[in-house]
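User: I've been trying to design a sequence by hand for this structure and keep getting stuck. Would you show me what you'd pick, starting by listing the structure so we're on the same page?

Assistant: Good idea, let's start from the same input. This is the structure you sent:
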């Protein structure tokens, strides 16, 4: 038996523990029994493979982990059910297709997932905590004989923090006839964080601050650039608004004039016999009558079209108090121009052709309705305005 390392216990604080190396399973089993009998509590065996009966010899009790997992699993399950009950059946009741407000089967999946989640996380983290992890380094690694604990030697280590630790500990171990006994010094820990680690932490913290800083910057600054736009398609092309200036054309206008001697296809209705029907005007004067047969069906159609297209703003009775108007007044009280009261003399005196023109081309703040309402229907509306409002 050779004894290496420091054996004097004068400086208790610098001792981490004592270690005895055995070269057989029987040796370590016997030693473990003895150490247990003596009443030591903070000690452990390190073996290259699981040794049958060692747990018993060491008097290791069953771990509390399964109970922790069970309790937390239950907590997860009931938490999941409670949350669903609170949110869907109590605080804000979900009524869907006449189904019952509260029915357990619908809540099983979430409850199940919560059980698994809580149980698994508890198992994972409790295992770490109960084992004293994370621990980067154990002073045991300083012992020369400890390297063979993963190969062909059996090592018993008693921690210096054990109440019974003292001169007798070494004597006890010597009496168990080990190969070697080794004292392990505790590393000198001054509690200071090494400079290099501090530097690395500093860099990591700075990097961590970058994303929030970028988000804050994006939220509080304005940019004329579009947002991150990976596939631009044709979303941001150079386009011109009507009446805009443009360097592209020699005349400096973005809008092009029709080529002289041509007219757009839809304009062919502006020539020939039906000019009055299409424009409400003939020879520069508003038509003074409806250029169509006025039948009861025609009048009904006018009423219906007015209801569909105009009443939202002008109201069914033409007063100008339609729902769009009422709402717009709330939202844009300062800038909103209300729809005209269509029952006033000023409107009543207008020629049918002028009313037709207002509907067709829009007037001041009112948009054009020619693309939505066919010309014949527009005349029907005019008839309704003139005769029935
Ligand atoms: C989106 C709301 C809105 C709709 C829908 C609407 N109007 Fe108007 N209308 C207005 C507003 C606003 C004015 C007043 C415009 C102004 O004074 O700038 C107006 C004015 C008018 C005038 C008065 C024109 C004048 O000479 O002063 C007539 C007539 C008229 N609308 C008829 C109609 C008819 C007919 C319809 C259905 C086809 C219709 N409006 C649909 C908002 C609307």
């Amino acid at each position: 038996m050779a004894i290496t390392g420091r054996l004097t216990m004068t400086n208790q604080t610098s001792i981490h523990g004592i270690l005895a190396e055995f070269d057989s399973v029987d040796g370590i089993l016997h030693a473990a029994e003895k150490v247990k009998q003596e009443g030591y509590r903070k000690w452990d065996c390190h073996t290259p493979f699981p040794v049958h009966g060692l747990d018993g010899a060491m008097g290791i009790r069953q771990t509390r982990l399964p109970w922790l997992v069970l309790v937390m699993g239950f907590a997860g399950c009931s938490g999941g059910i409670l949350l669903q009950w609170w949110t869907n059946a109590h605080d804000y009741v979900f009524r869907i297709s006449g189904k019952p407000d509260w029915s357990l089967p619908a809540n099983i999946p979430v409850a199940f997932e919560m059980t698994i989640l809580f149980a698994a996380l508890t198992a994972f983290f409790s295992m770490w905590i109960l084992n004293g992890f994370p621990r980067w380094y154990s002073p045991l690694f300083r012992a020369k004989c400890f390297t063979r604990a993963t190969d062909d030697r059996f090592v018993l280590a008693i921690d210096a923090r054990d109440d019974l630790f003292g001169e007798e500990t070494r004597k006890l171990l010597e009496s168990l006839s080990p190969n070697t006994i080794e004292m392990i010094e505790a590393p000198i820990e001054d509690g200071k964080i090494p400079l290099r680690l501090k530097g690395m932490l500093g860099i990591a913290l700075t990097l961590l601050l970058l994303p929030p800083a970028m988000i804050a910057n994006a939220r509080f600054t304005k940019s004329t650039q579009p947002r991150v736009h990976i596939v631009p398609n044709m979303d941001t092309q150079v386009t011109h608004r009507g009446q805009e200036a443009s360097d592209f054309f020699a005349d400096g206008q973005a809008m092009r004039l029709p080529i002289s001697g041509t007219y757009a296809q839809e304009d062919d209705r502006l020539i020939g016999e039906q000019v009055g029907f299409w424009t409400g005007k003939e020879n520069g004067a508003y038509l003074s009558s409806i250029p169509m047969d006025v039948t009861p069906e025609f009048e009904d159609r006018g009423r219906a079209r007015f209801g569909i297209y105009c009443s939202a703003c002008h109201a069914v009775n033409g007063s100008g108090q339609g729902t769009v108007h009422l709402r717009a007044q709330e939202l844009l009280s300062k800038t909103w121009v209300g729809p005209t009261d269509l029952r006033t003399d000023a409107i009543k005196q207008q020629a049918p052709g002028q009313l037709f023109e207002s509907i067709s081309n829009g007037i001041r703040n009112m948009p054009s309705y020619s693309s939505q309402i066919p010309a014949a229907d527009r005349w029907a509306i005019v008839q309704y305005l003139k005769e029935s409002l």
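That's my pick for every position. To get oriented when you compare it with your attempt: The pocket of heme C is lined by residues 309-310, 312-314, 324, 337, 339-340, 342, 347, 355, 358-359, 363-366, 369, 381, 385 (CB under 6 Å). The CA atoms of residues 317 and 389 lie 7 Å apart.
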